[in-house]
Automatic annotation (TrEMBL):
It comes from the Bacteria. This is diguanylate cyclase. CDD domains: GGDEF. It is an enzyme of class 2 (transferase). Residues 208-337 form the GGDEF domain. One of its GO terms (molecular function) is diguanylate cyclase activity.
């Protein structure tokens, strides 16, 4: 790195550590590295503790001349969730990095493919992949390692702030951020599917819908009253772990507050979402809890729709949960099915009553 680049690097690192959102932090990392290395494109892959791919981000940066003394910079970010397709040659390099826990480099045609591991508290939680015109100099490799170290330390602090202290699940603050981003993404997806040229692609690949469910531990107050709060906390922990095991790697699980949890899952149809919530309910119900015995959960779920706010969607799921409790507990109800059955009436949002 040239001395003249140092102020720019320090400014970018300052911007990096000012971010309070994990996804934006990933974007900022890529924006920091590409100009420093003179790289046009790169990918960031995220994996979970079972090394299943969670998402991928592709970042492109193009510089085009506008005049003698000016240039136009165009940036494009593509984010892929759930079905992450990793090219075979990249997958082979990722396997080498996973085994050695060190970066690896390999010539691919006229370029050099560089793969760096992203390290977290439990080992590798992602990979940074980019192509360069030549092998990295020692100083450039050291620069990348240094920036990734800063990123890792800050990302760990950010991750801790988004986790519930007792269960380790994502917390309510993280829920608010993620649901807002997801609704924005859903609106964009709905608009793109309405375009005529998207009709053929939509038919080829089933459209994914998102569902938000509220899950509540039945009779939790009685557990606390009869066995004490220490056992109550143990029940919360066990329920959280059982639900995590029953969910897919792409699903999101939050502790909403007290004995309530929120699940966000994706599926191409409502029936499949209902089956996912039922698997979760059965996973908890068949487990025998120390001292307590059987513990059950009730839940309600509703579709995430870009026409409604996060508050309105959570309210729908909560109404379905209330009906599940009224019906005897240990069951999961769909808001849409309750509307169709006439049990609930569609709420009218957007009007304001003054009193």
């Amino acid at each position: 790195m040239r001395p003249t680049q140092l102020p720019s690097l320090l400014d970018r690192l300052a911007s990096l550590t000012a971010i309070r959102d994990t996804e934006l932090l990933e974007h900022s990392l890529l924006r920091t590295l590409l100009p420093m290395l003179g790289v046009a494109t790169c990918q960031l892959y995220r994996v979970n503790e079972r090394h299943e791919f969670l998402r991928a981000i592709r970042f492109e940066r193009e510089i085009s001349a506008q005049g003698e003394d000016s240039a136009r910079i165009t940036e494009n970010i593509e984010r892929v969730l759930h079905q992450v397709d990793v090219p075979e040659d990249i997958q082979l390099l990722i396997d080498v990095v996973r085994q050695n826990q060190q970066p690896t480099f390999q010539s691919l045609g006229q370029a050099v493919c560089n793969v760096f591991p992203l390290l977290g508290g439990v080992g590798i939680n992602g990979y940074l992949v980019f192509e360069s015109r030549r092998p990295l100099a020692q100083s450039e490799e050291t620069l990348v390692r240094g920036i990734l170290s800063v990123y890792r330390n800050y990302a760990a602090l950010l991750e801790e702030s988004q986790r519930d202290k007792l269960t380790g699940l994502l917390n309510r603050h993280s829920l608010d951020q993620n649901v807002d981003k997801l609704l924005t993404s859903i609106v964009a997806d709905q608009l793109s599917h309405n375009q005529p040229d998207q009709a053929q692609d939509s038919a080829a690949s089933p459209r994914q819908y998102y569902w938000l469910g509220i899950v509540d531990i039945d009779h939790f107050k009685q557990i606390n009253d009869n066995f004490g709060h220490v056992i109550g906390d143990e029940v919360l922990l066990l329920v959280a772990r059982l639900m995590q095991r029953s969910l897919r790697s792409s699903d999101l699980l939050y502790r909403y507050g007290g004995e309530e949890f929120i699940v966000i899952t994706a599926s191409s149809e409502r029936a499949a979402a209902g089956e996912q919530f039922e698997r979760l309910r059965h996973a908890v119900g068949k487990h025998r809890f120390p001292q307590v015995g059987q513990v059950t959960v009730s839940g309600g779920y509703a579709q995430l729709d870009g026409h409604f706010s996060a508050h309105e969607i959570i309210s729908r799921a909560d109404q379905a949960l209330y009906q599940a409790k009224r019906a005897g507990r240990n069951r999961i109800f769909s808001y849409a099915e309750l509307i169709e059955a006439g049990v609930l009436k569609e709420a009218s949002y957007g009007s304001v009553e003054l009193f």
